[in-house]
Design brief:
With 266 residues, the chain is mainly alpha-helical. It contains nine helices and no strands. Among the domains are: 65 residues, no CATH class; 48 residues, no CATH class; 53 residues. 70% of the residues lie in helices and 0% in strands. The longest helix has 69 residues. It is elongated.
């Protein structure tokens, strides 16, 4: 059977050779009616040789020729799926304007569509303008001006943003230095608080006679009493400083008064 297909496809055998081959295959039972690929049904009752000659004559008819590309395609895809996989436009006999535009947008000039379909026709534009007038929409010129103004505003905002970025980048070294200065100061304050806490814990150990924890109520009460005492002392020192300043000011005023009195008596 394979040899027979090869002879038919290659078209190199003579008609008599094909007739003899067909006769032998049919007689031996190697070929039946269900295995005939290119057989044409005949209603006439001719002899076996005439039927073989009429059924398998080699001609240039496209219906009798095997498509080489179809034989090579073993993907089991439909023709349109095969074309789509290879980036080719599929066959769409039902396509309307929307499908045509989609085809041209996807495949370009390979789709075979006219590029003019991508733009609306004059009648469509006139109909759209009439519809806009009925709806009370703004004229096209006014809308174009609004779009231009929006674009200019967006561009101006973009320029302002770039300007702010440049200014901030110029101040970036200063801000980085201030940040690290604050971090250093915070670490120093944390170290001072830790040292103060450790000193308070040591003082509490000497006061109670045993080592206490920072969350011990006795320790917290001691800390509160100590803070209140420190606040009272700070308040007392503030009052004393204020009294000293007041006394110094009064002494200065008294000295001025005495000097003026001496000048007046003299």
């Amino acid at each position: 059977m394979v040899v027979y297909k090869f002879i038919v496809e290659s078209k190199v055998a003579s008609r008599q050779v094909l007739i003899d081959l067909y006769r032998n295959l049919f007689k031996t039972g190697c070929l039946n009616s269900t295995q005939l690929i290119l057989r044409k049904k005949s209603t006439t009752t001719n002899s076996l040789e005439d039927r073989a000659e009429s059924d398998y004559q080699i001609s240039d008819d496209s219906d009798l020729e095997l498509n080489t590309e179809d034989l090579r395609n073993v993907s089991r895809l439909t023709p349109n799926q095969f074309k789509h996989y290879h980036g080719l436009p599929p066959d769409m006999p039902y396509k309307d304007l929307i499908h045509k535009r989609h085809r041209y947008a996807a495949y370009g000039s390979a789709s075979g569509e006219n590029p003019r379909i991508m733009w609306p026709s004059r009648s469509t534009i006139l109909a759209m303008e009439e519809e806009e007038k009925e709806e009370g929409s703004k004229a096209l010129i006014e809308r174009l001006k609004e779009v231009q103004m929006e674009q200019e505003a967006a561009e101006e905002e973009k320029l302002e943003r770039r300007k702010r970025i440049e200014q901030n980048m110029a101040q970036m070294p200063k801000w980085i230095a201030e940040y690290w200065q604050k971090q250093t100061q915070a670490h120093k304050e944390a170290a001072v608080r830790a040292a103060k806490k450790e000193a308070l814990l040591e003082e509490a150990r000497d006061y109670f006679g045993y080592k206490v924890q920072a969350n011990d109520p006795k320790f917290q009460q001691m800390v509160e009493e100590k803070e209140e005492k420190e606040k009272a002392e700070a308040k007392k020192r503030k009052k004393e400083d204020k009294a000293k300043k007041l006394a110094a000011r009064m002494a200065q005023e008294m000295a001025k008064v005495s000097k003026s009195a001496e000048k007046a008596s003299s």
